[in-house]
Amino acid sequence: MEDRKKLREKISDYHHFSFVLTALSAFLYIGIFIDQYQYEGRRVLFLATGMILLLLFAFFFRFLSGRYERALAEMDEE
User: Fold this and answer.
1) Which single residue of 26, 27, 58, 77 could bond 18 by disulfide (Cβ 3.0 to 4.6 Å)?
2) Quick one: which of 11, 5, 2 has its CA closest to 66?
3) Alpha carbon separation from 74 to 7, 19, 51, 69 (Å, rounded)
């Protein structure tokens, strides 16, 4: 019973992490285009790299939450 509760908490946490990281990535994406003429090449590259990293981490957390959801479903079947 306690394992199921921990898995549900992890799933919820990973969903929240992925949402926050996706929102931060969108904020950086908008920031690139609002001030694209102000920034130099390095700053745009830095913002784009940060945006891509945040999206990769968001997808990673979604992958983990899916894995834990499958594990929780397997526990419920038994």
Assistant:
1) 58
2) 11
3) 12, 26, 35, 9
Q: Give the span between the Cα atoms of 54 and 24, in whole angstroms.
A: 7
The structure's pTM equals 0.82
Which residue type, as a one-letter code, is found at position 75? M
In 3D, which of 77, 71, 69 has the Cα closest to residue 12?
Answer: 69
Tokens coding 6: 């921990």
Rounded to the nearest 5 percent, the helix, strand and coil shares of the chain are 90, 0, 10
CA 5 to centroid of chain Cα atoms: 22
